[in-house]
Amino acid sequence: MEKQWVLGAFLAAITVLWIAVSPPDWRTVPFVDADGAASGLWALRQHVLYLSGLLSVGLMSMCMLLGLRQPWMERVVGGMDQVYRLHKWAGIGAGATAIAHWLAKESGGWIKDIWGSAGRPAREAMLAWAGALRSPAKDIGEMAFYVLLALLLVTLWQQLLNYRRWRWTHRAMPLIYLALVCHSIVLMPARVWLEPLGVLFASMFAVGSAAALVSLTDRIGRSRTFDARVESVTSAGAGKGQQPLELVCAMPRDWRGFRPGQFVFLTFDRVEGAHPFTIAGAPETLGCNARGEPLLRFLIKPLGDCTTALSALLHVGQSVQIEGPYGQFDAIGEAGRDQVWVAGGVGITPFIAFLEARQPQSGHVHAHSHEGEVWMHYCTRDAVGDALLARVRQLCEQAVPVVHLTVHDAAVGDFFAPESLEQHGACGLDIWFCGPAGLGVVLKDACRRIGAGRWRLHRELFAMR
Prior knowledge:
This protein is α/β, with parallel strands linked by helices.
């Protein structure tokens, strides 16, 4: 399910319920009457003030819930990567509507200075016990608003902070949310609590506050977290530049297993926090070590601060925490449709898992994979120095059913062109992509321009902030 549909339906539901509680009074039109009273403007201000506040705290409640990383969320929106995108855009929406709420509050002074207080609606009655808390609740809300904007700015402008520092600032979000819940409960008109809108927000505040406490006590994903051990750490190649790191971890025997293409969150350092990595292999081919412990393999490219330092930090026998698995990127698709796999750089890792699942010796060739032929396009900066290319070629040649491999070598000017996919599957394509974000945007645009109605794009989005 697309994030815009989820957010749109959520915002529309709150808006409709607010209108049901407080329908617009069209008698206040025009905004300023012949006598100079700004009744219409005052009424509009009141609607915008309340509705923007409800939308903002509602979206923050959604953020708190999505931050719990519950497996059922994947089935609703199509994968944990999509859950994170929805979380991010709900946060952006919360910030935008919070700005609208602040502007509506400030506009009271502007309207009064220009037109006076004539026509201003009477103050809404609050809950009986909340009257004495009105002033501190307003102050708390305003302070929380300023901190919220600062944290959102840091999140959107990622160059300001590296991941470690950003993670610790982001941990303040649950505290901001709890402050805004208190602000909302005190200032919400008493009549709202007796309506469906009030029931909805009481439920959201309860769930969101519980989620905030889970986050503050560092219990997110605790039931799906396993203590693992580093089995081996090696370089995946000896070519030019920084080569991918091959990390193999031994899992406890009660590990629940995974499907090819899924990812987990690895924690090497509690201060650094968890990072997502795709499991580079199929369950049947990774097997177990001599102690009967299931093995997981990861191919980690040194792209950021954390991944660049891993080769020096990791050692055999080191303890790591692994949370998961997550993800709906399974390359199964719809029966009867041809498949194209497009991989860029380290985005090849889920496809290695799919290829291993198609090997005759896996014992379950069709259990985790599309049963038809597949055309695979692998984009690499330098085919000569690519540490993974030989392995990918071998897996494609041995795959059952066959996987047709095309390598696009940027070093010799051979770039992937989405238009070339027209030669595959005239009746429709399932396109599975994992790679650089820019290439994903180009491919998505091509699906709309060229393959509208015929091409279906599936992609993994590892933008977790």
